[in-house]
């Protein structure tokens, strides 16, 4: 994986969602050919790539075709079967590797990784059977029960106040392996995105401050307005340590909480570009997707520079419905009349509430101006202020 793939080579990506689409855009901009593997005909990345292999993630013929067409392969969603990455890795360089992706796919393994790196995380217990459920310490309640695998955007989670609620929630989740986390008193949320190449070069984006609504990322602000510099440095050091410890190659996002008492706690990580890093397309001199391309191709990494303060707003499918639940088109012309608005829509035709349809980033000469414009955008779109 130390050989450099020069522009003109073909880069593949497992998964055809919006992250794959933005990876494809970055790869094409650098002169690479792109191939996407995704079973869905209308996949956001599939429609922009030079080629789509339309196959399931464990389809052996599809995986073989992807390997045949590509010089190296990455992934855009963390629930890609580790087995598929293992099969691909027999034929082509794959980054991130199956082992690192497997850690990020399992909340228990992920937390164990944090602990190994000396990074604090929420007090928690693994629940795989009734005995473990009964043995859960009282201190973890009230808590949040999360499926160990396959959760995203707050799906596969339940808030549990007491033991009765815990039992009911575990039944509701189908008795699958879960992690019970103590509900922590959050003051702020932040994330750090790092990129590491096979040569061990490691760079990071500036710290993102994130606001979630209903378990889904709603707003990202950079520079982080409320996080003390020392805490930001601590988060960056932790994320870099975790990536290096896993011998990680690719883009990795680590999410953190700042607690009411000021302590920093790691929440989870994603072995890919992250929604909280989308602002980097418009506000940094190298985006998280270009970093993904560079790590996959074995190109040099340079420390990204934020050239404009930025506010990113997620655009969920809810915006495509009015108060009476009738379909509408959001008022893009009014939004785009404001300065520094960068609109990114993912080409999804079917708007559903809670579905990520796009995002927009506001850049401005100062953080205060970026925030002021973003608040005007939010008002135009009917989004809550922040
Ligand atoms: P993602 O879309 O980031 O993959 P996810 O479904 O994996 O989300 P988490 O990141 O675990 O879910 O949790 C979603 C949100 O729920 C967090 O960003 C935070 O706001 C809240 N949350 C999660 N765990 C805790 C906790 N232990 N205490 C308090 N709040 C929490
Ligand atoms: Mg999360």
UniProtKB/TrEMBL annotation:
ATP binds at residues 107, 146, 151-157, 181-184, 189, 212, 267-268. SUPFAM superfamilies: Glutathione synthetase ATP-binding domain-like (SSF56059), PreATP-grasp domain (SSF52440), Rudiment single hybrid motif (SSF51246). Its EC number is 6.3.4.18. It comes from the Bacteria. Residues 111-297 form the ATP-grasp domain. It catalyses: 5-amino-1-(5-phospho-beta-D-ribosyl)imidazole + hydrogencarbonate + ATP = 5-carboxyamino-1-(5-phospho-D-ribosyl)imidazole + ADP + phosphate + 2 H(+). Coiled coil: none annotated. It is an enzyme of class 6 (ligase). Catalyzes the ATP-dependent conversion of 5-aminoimidazole ribonucleotide (AIR) and HCO(3)- to N5-carboxyaminoimidazole ribonucleotide (N5-CAIR). Belongs to the PurK/PurT family. This is N5-carboxyaminoimidazole ribonucleotide synthase. It comes from Pseudaquabacterium terrae. The gene is purK.
